[in-house]
Specification:
alpha+beta, 393 residues, 17 strands, 8-stranded mixed β-sheet
Length: 393
């Protein structure tokens, strides 16, 4: 539950005074390189939309503008929210794109969003880059649900951004209304959402290339107020940053890491030699009390030769290869009900509380549970239920 608490803290921070998070240039570059290595023409002749961005602060806009010609883009569009439309206070400073332009209007700057476009060499220096961005005020405040921004979505090929985490589901659904390709940042807990997990299960969405176990450092404004709930470095490469754990990329654009299969040991070798004390030396893998599957608490402890269903940690998903595994379902909530009518038994619930269990767990609760070697009733943190497509023999 620690991960969920940390991400709740992020949500609170992003909706409080002076707390905005900006993705760093090198994190974007690292992720995008994985798609280019898999398909060098992935962005060629494409219109890319970067909603929720502002070139003065956004590394997304800077990155794609600087690589416009290299990627072979057809058009780059970036939009930003009006400061007055946000649900928290900021010490907003107009960007140089605005102040140095004759159309600059302080009233419009506060109430209207802005659109930045890049299609040609405006400066005449023989290249197309960030200096060639053109901009004007939007009619509205730049909300992605406005007809104005929806029209930009409809005319674009790929949508890439770091949307507000609290609006992740709404933003994802907004993208999928027009079945667009996308690459967006969210927190790991979004995987537990029914609609998000269903897309992953059906192979219509997957995680990006960057391993989310490392977390990400986001740039924050100079007046950002640090909190004791975060792990952070106040300065990194000369900029004020804050570390957010459990952050990952979600996409429907293919990349090479997605097809790298895990190298695994057999069940007997895991039980003899696993580096995990929870596995090594046991007689067998633990079976769930209310579902025909074994519990595998570590991704690398997945037995290569087991042909049944296995419950694995949520962190498995950034190592998931569709050629190696089939996703059966999720081990809690409505998604568990879809694959099993059997919740926790009355006896299990009683034993769970006797063992010091917490939470509002009742008989028939839709969640996986098992008895450990000491006879204690255990409810593990969320499990993804998977099966080998071709187990080794």
């Amino acid at each position: 539950m620690e991960q969920k608490a940390k991400n709740n803290n992020l949500y609170k921070a992003k909706t409080s005074k002076k707390d905005e998070f900006y993705t760093q240039y090198h994190d974007i570059e690292k992720e995008i390189n994985a798609y280019l290595e898999y398909n060098p023409n992935v962005f060629r002749d494409k219109i890319i939309l970067l909603p929720c961005d502002d070139p003065e602060w956004s590394s997304f806009t800077k990155y794609f503008a600087q690589n416009f010609e290299y990627f072979g883009l057809k058009k780059l569009i970036s939009t930003s929210y009006a400061p007055d439309s946000k649900n928290y206070n900021t010490n907003y400073q107009p960007s140089l794109f605005e102040v140095n332009n004759p159309q600059y209007d302080i009233k419009k700057t506060k109430k209207n969003g802005k659109i930045f476009t890049l299609t040609k060499d405006k400066t005449g220096d023989g290249k197309i880059d960030v200096n060639d961005l053109e901009w004007h005020y939007l009619k509205g405040d730049g909300d992605f649900n406005s007809p104005e921004i929806k029209k930009l979505r409809d005319d674009s090929d790929i949508i890439i951004t770091n949307p507000p985490f609290s609006l992740f589901r709404d933003f994802l659904n907004w993208i999928l209304e027009e079945k667009k390709h996308f690459l967006i940042i969210g927190n790991i807990n979004a995987i537990s959402y029914t609609d998000v997990f269903s897309l992953i299960k059906k192979g219509e969405m997957w995680l990006g290339s960057t391993n989310f176990n490392t977390g990400m450092y986001f740039k924050v404004p100079p007046d950002f107020i640090y909190s004791s709930t975060y792990k952070f470095e106040k300065e990194k490469n000369g900029e004020k940053v804050n570390r957010v754990p459990g952050v990952c990329w979600f996409t429907n654009i293919d990349h090479g890491r997605r097809h790298v299969q895990l190298k695994l040991q057999s069940m007997s070798d895991n039980l003899k030699y696993s580096k995990h004390k929870e596995i090594k030396g046991k007689k067998a893998y633990t079976k769930y009390d209310n579902y025909d599957a074994i519990d595998v608490p570590f991704t690398l402890a997945i037995p290569s030769d087991f042909d049944g269903i296995m419950g694995v940690p949520i962190t498995f998903l950034d190592k998931f290869s569709p050629e190696q595994f089939e996703i059966i379902g999720q081990g809690q909530g409505n998604l568990f009900r879809e694959i099993s009518p059997k919740g926790l038994s009355k006896k299990f619930v009683e034993d769970y509380y006797k063992a010091g269990g917490t939470g509002s767990i009742k008989e028939d609760h839709p969640v996986l549970g098992y008895y450990n070697e000491n006879g204690q009733a255990i409810i593990p943190y969320m499990r993804i239920l998977i099966k080998h497509k071709k187990p080794t023999k």
